Amino acid sequence: MFERNTLAALAVVSLAATAACSDSAADGASITASAPPARTSYPLTFDNCGQKVSFSRPPERVLILNGTSVAEVESFVLLGLQKHVLANAQHYGVSDDPAMVEAIKALPTRGLTTNKAFEVPAEQVLSARADLVISTWSGGFDAKRGLATREQLAAAGVNTLVNPVNCAYGKPTATPEEKRNYERLSIESSHEFMTLLGRVFDVQHRAAQVTAGLRQRVDAVRRRVAGRPPKKVLVAYPGMSMMNSNGLPAVMTGRITDEVIRAAGGVNAFAGRSRDVTSTLNKEQLATAEVDVVAVGAFQPGEDPAAEARALFKRYPQWRASRTGTYVPVADGMFLGPLNAAAVEKLVKVVQPGA
Description:
It is built from 15 helices and eleven strands. By secondary structure, it is an alpha/beta fold. The strands form three sheets. Strands 7, 8, 9, 10 and 11 form a five-stranded mixed sheet that branches. Strands 4-3-5-6 form a four-stranded parallel sheet. Strands 1-2 form a two-stranded antiparallel ribbon. Helix 9 (204-225) packs parallel to helix 15. It is globular, with a radius of gyration of 20 Å. The protein has two domains: 8-217, Nitrogenase molybdenum iron protein domain (Rossmann fold); 226-351, Nitrogenase molybdenum iron protein domain (Rossmann fold), CATH 3.40.50.
């Protein structure tokens, strides 16, 4: 339902990127390609963000923490691992694949709540009796935020897993390699997490199929827009204005967001700027930006991207996008997660309509 273009044949031709690795790979993310994905051999042991994790069998009671992410829960859905989810705290209620909203809504939540850090408090996690707790970032296990630590959970016999690309995020003792990986966050990072889940849950062939299909979709768009003059795209999430110190819509730039835009034949209107622009951008900087297309991001149900676009056009009539009324609604596909391909396909229709 979600991966409409995934074909088994695509998995075969892309094994150089998705084949299974040794069961002792650092962070569970390295991949050595020499053969088709094999069945997972248990016990499976590897290092994840500096912590040793070991699985004697596929986890059966998984708790997915929030972290204002949907990357991890969407990966479970695309890999068909819903039956393994004990409780899920990740949800936006909007998506670049509308079917994903219903799929996530169907997962159990077990009454989980989140605190001011947008995370599940320690007492709820420790009482859930999960056999695996997954966080999008290392900060999801920070005692200073009122959260259960990896050490506490290990002592209770519970495995923990951090999305490897985010090891450095929320980890004061992050290694130089972890910091480099975090700065290199990309579309491929989304695929690497699914490959890791494929190993942990012994669905490596499915993971290879899904990631191959996602790569094929993005590459198909890249080929169509190759050589076309890029349009300048502003990515703005009005519903995340709390992230901006000046009360402006949260403007996203850098890393995976820029890569999604480039794949669709555009360039971020704030390309080259620090990611701090999301929190520090002021009205003058926004007003003087060159904007051909506005990608209006939705974060919660009930937001109206069309109305938000009209409001932006009225406020900044000097933008080319305002004069032409050019915008495209986006959601989760602009961030880490398996729906980057969906966002690329939505963007290209507006950024490069001739393609």
